[in-house]
Design a protein that fits this description.
Two copies of one chain form a homodimer. By secondary structure, chain A is α+β, with helices and mostly antiparallel strands. Chain A contains nine helices and 14 strands. The first copy, chain A, has two domains: 132 residues, 60s Ribosomal Protein L30, Chain: A; 168 residues, Phosphoribosyl-aminoimidazole Synthetase, Chain A, domain 2 (Alpha-Beta Complex), CATH 3.90.650.10. In chain A, helix 5 crosses helix 8. The longest helix of chain A is centred in the middle third of the chain and has 17 residues. At the A-B interface, helix 1, helix 2, strand 1, strand 2 and helix 3 of A face helix 1, helix 2, strand 1, strand 2 and helix 3 of B.
Chain lengths: 363, 363
């Protein structure tokens, strides 16, 4: 009797409802709310668009979390969300930026990047083609940086509730043995280095928003900096005191943090600052101070003055350090710490922490 | 001469522009774009609202990345973004959810949660009071779960470009020695356990959105599950084959993944499913199948049948496991793997992976 009932009630595979037309997933050209619902459509999105891009099929783990082998008892952990507008800009896009940004946060902490997570917040209606391009850019950048995307998450919100796509990447890295970086180690006499020109990312984004065109087009400096930071730590060891990527708030924000946290004065030499002429023109036209403008491929390092020349030579041997320069020194403070710019004509101007209003959604 | 010039050009502290009225930061009642600009306003937001909440002042690190001591050579890494609407619901809020969600992803992977990152995407105009409440909830939940928030990020987008607040948390945990969890270890005969009632989170959110009221108000099950998972691993060792928190897509999505990934059939016993009466009423009124509905405080475990009773007794000794039950078994598959529900009257219904359309923005 029970068995008869079981057969009677049993819905066989061939009785299952046929796949509806709107479920023909390859034909879906735009993101729908259901892509974030945790069901078949999300599974398809992940299996068809995300997994094939990240890794060789073996390193990809599709569970909600990933297990990582750590060859150290100290790891470095960081996170960053990216909301840049426009999504695509000269020199990069939100995907490249989201890999570089997190790789760089690990790099300047003296860590070797190991693994990234990738969390997407997608707006309903986002073109699949745009998503595809961004994912490809993420994959290409991660591969070039030799870092794996090991775990992820996808959410979808209604049209109008987000702006196309927001990306979060978090990262895990292993601290390098020869890195000993902290504000506390910065002392008067130390040299301040940068690996190239200032403000390229911010001015590229702003010019694109404002519709400015130049004969020499501006291009974001968006790049992964871990090779430059490793080079420095491996060759100069503990003579490297501190590193930071001056992104939002630019050099001004970073150096003010150095002054305040280390209890020192910072003296910048205006004539030593590497600045691209077109970037300067754009900044002048739009009324920006390049010291406040975001960089996405720059690392500032504070090193013992004795190794400054060696460090600059090292950086100049790398494509991302061709315009590396010593841009200032750390000085004693007799009062509350200050950042000062020694101007072209020998005057001094206090460089303040920017208010923050300059450049919304620059990264 | 140089010295005279230096003095002439030197802008002294007392010459610096006075703080403008709009920069009186404590009086700012709403989030402004400049709060995400990397400058003074962002620094104030972080220093005044974020840092005091997370930790004792010592464990808080304000750099872009944090160093964590890992007592193991294997760590677990996970990420989740949270976009739930409404931001506050009975039983929780987006802040509590964002801690529990990531703690749970680590927990069901067999890891002890160690550290979380916190990344905020704020909409310009968000009330500071709302942000304050959410941050407090994050802090309280993290403290109760004994997990530190160690690094973070804050972005602000224009009014209309996000919906109040989106939160990403990523997490790092240490794999427990006695956890050996994988789809591959699931075998016919294994028992399927759950720690309590189904669909509470999803139906609470949906009822609140639809304005439904009940004599017994619905409440989200939102909770951190690491104590339940540790309890199981420590006491039942390798008899625990697999664990997962059935969030988006509910039990149906999780069990279909089990069937497909392990190459087995799953048999659920309808009469054994713990279901709250009011939640069932809400689901019936709104036309939902509770098997498809998100949980945020439930862990599904597949264990060797020999330890099933012991596991249930363990869970019942914990406040979050009072209604724990064995809800099904793993069976051989003679064809492509299936999830079947043995109904109250002994029939069988195939449980499919939901399409994903049911519940947008449930977490």
């Amino acid at each position: 009797m029970d068995e008869v009932q079981n057969h009677a009630f049993r819905l066989r595979r061939e009785d299952m409802p046929p796949v509806k037309k709107r479920e023909n997933m390859e034909e879906i050209k735009k993101i729908m709310l259901a892509h974030g619902g945790g069901g078949r459509l999300m599974g398809d999105l992940i299996a068809r668009m995300i997994v094939p891009k990240f890794g060789d099929g073996q390193s990809v783990q599709l569970t909600d979390s990933a297990v990582i082998d750590v060859p150290s008892d100290k790891i470095c952990f960081t996170t960053d969300s990216f909301v840049v507008q426009p999504l695509f800009f000269n020199g990069g896009d939100i995907g490249k930026l989201s890999v570089c940004g997190t790789v760089n946060d690990l790099a300047v902490a003296g860590a070797k990047p190991m693994a990234l997570s990738l969390s997407l917040i997608l707006e309903e209606g986002l073109d699949m083609d745009i998503l595809e391009k961004i994912l490809q850019s993420i994959a290409d950048t991660a591969k070039a940086a030799n870092v794996n995307i090991v775990t992820g998450d996808t959410k979808v919100v209604e049209t109008g509730s987000a702006d196309g796509i927001f990306i979060n990447t978090s990262g895990v890295g292993v601290l390098m043995d020869n890195a000993d970086l902290s504000f506390a180690r910065i002392k008067p006499g130390d040299a301040i280095l940068i690996n190239g020109t200032l403000g390229d990312h911010g001015m590229t984004i702003m010019s694109q928003r404002e519709g400015l065109k130049f004969d020499t087009p501006l291009s974001s400096d968006c790049a992964c900096l871990h090779e430059l930071t490793q080079m420095l730590c491996e060759n100069c060891g503990e003579a490297v005191k501190f590193m930071r990527d001056p992104t939002r708030g630019g050099l001004a924000a970073t150096l003010n943090e150095v002054a305040k946290s280390s209890g020192v004065n910072v003296e910048l030499t205006e004539t030593a600052l590497p600045i691209d002429k077109t970037v300067q023109t754009a900044a002048d036209m739009l009324g920006f101070d390049l010291l406040n403008i975001a960089n996405e491929g720059k690392v500032l390092a504070v090193v013992d003055a004795a190794v400054a020349d060696k460090a600059i030579d090292l950086w100049k041997s790398h494509p991302l350090g061709k315009k590396a320069a010593v841009i200032g020194t750390i000085a004693e403070t007799d009062d509350s710490p200050l950042v000062e710019l020694v101007t072209k004509i020998g005057g001094r101007r206090i460089v303040q922490t920017p208010y923050g209003r300059e450049l919304p959604r620059i990264c």
